[in-house]
Amino acid sequence: QSTWGFHHRFVDERNKDYYVLFGHHLATIAVVCISYWFKYVRYGLLVFYFHDVSDVVLDLAKVANYLKLEGKAGLFITEILYGVLVSSWVKYRLYEFPRLIWYGIIKIIPVDSILPDGSSSFGASTYEKFPNHYFWDCQIGGPVCSVLLIILFCMHIFWGYLLLRIGYRTLFKKEGIHEVEQEEYAG
What we know:
This protein is mainly α. The protein has helices at 2-10, 18-37, 41-66, 77-107, 126-129, 141-172, 177-186. Helix content is 71%, strand content 0%.
């Protein structure tokens, strides 16, 4: 993730979403580091997993688009990869990722159930009740990770909207996917 952030910052061309993507890399790196530091590695690993599943398809679709492998001449490779990208994006970044946020932040250990002495309003101490999910043992790690995960999700919504806009213009306005992508994204 940090390598992609470095590449995006210093090597890659600046697209319309340059600052959003740079912030995305910073937030992802921060979530992974904070979750590792405060011994809650599962968040960081799941963030990597949900991002990498759709990133593979995203990169393949970008390559196919740059090579103009679209339409009959390109065996519809760009269009097929676009469809796979949208479905993986919706499944992993707009459905599974928020479920991770909801489950990890809201359901496992609600913030208002933790008392200052480390005990829980559930009756047992937080550590006894959730030994593998004791993320809130620090005063700052949990809330910071929570905010960063929500920011990442908002960025996923933004890119999901862009993807759907590209698809709409390609399907209903009969514009070429390469031209629409250049106008909508690279612009």
